[in-house]
Design a protein that fits this description.
single chain
Length: about 210
């Protein structure tokens, strides 16, 4: 009946809002890769692909599971377990270095330090926070990776600066990922075949910085 339709419509809106808040403003103390001073967080809070606490003795971390499946579709053990030189690892960032949400109207930069600990390759992909799919722009891919994009320019110290914004800054188009004005975005750093410096955190990505 009409009353139940209203109840269910409200439930959908509240459920969606709750999942968005969990995904894009995490409150967990254990989700941050480098502490709360950094914006990088794990897609697998708790480090278990089943989202079990203490191997199930503490139940299931439903907030962690909600976060993952709000922004992603499929999970496997190889996406979270420590498998040096195999599998993959993921880091997400939805805010800049001062914890402000990323704005497609503005220009940002992100430094990927030299010697990325990925045996196979690394990639940085930009997503739409509304659809959680890749951001649709005039570029073929809203991403850069060191295998497909061999024309990326590296800095003198071996690092790579990635640029984000509606227009490429200066002559940096080879390192530029386009964003859409008046639309938010977030990004995911992927390491395929992650190596020990990723796990022991002796290597870490820079923060997404607003270019004033």
């Amino acid at each position: 009946d009409a009353r139940m339709q209203r109840v269910l419509t409200d439930a959908v809106a509240i459920g969606n809002a709750t999942a968005r808040a969990i995904a894009f403003r995490p409150r967990s103390e254990t989700i941050w890769y480098y502490g709360k001073e950094s914006s990088w967080f794990s897609a697998f809070d708790g480090g278990d692909y089943r989202w079990l606490i203490d191997d199930g003795n503490g139940g299931r971390n439903k907030d962690a599971r909600t976060l993952f499946f709000y922004i992603a579709t499929v999970n496997t053990p190889a996406m979270v377990l420590k498998m040096v030189g195999m599998g993959s690892q993921y880091a997400l960032s939805v805010t800049d270095s001062k914890r402000r949400y990323l704005d497609g109207s503005k220009t940002y930069r992100l430094i990927i330090p030299a010697n990325v600990p990925a045996k196979d390759f690394w990639s940085l992909v930009v997503y739409d926070p509304q659809t959680r799919s890749m951001l649709q722009t005039s570029q073929a891919y809203p991403s850069k990776n060191n295998e497909r994009n061999r024309d990326m320019v590296t800095n003198s110290d071996g690092s790579t600066t990635l640029w984000f914004g509606p227009d490429p800054p200066g002559k940096k188009e080879t390192n530029w990922i386009q964003t859409i004005p008046r639309k938010g975005w977030f990004c995911c750093l992927r390491l395929y075949g992650p190596l020990e410096p990723w796990f022991d955190k002796t290597w870490r990505p820079g923060e997404v910085e607003l270019v004033e």
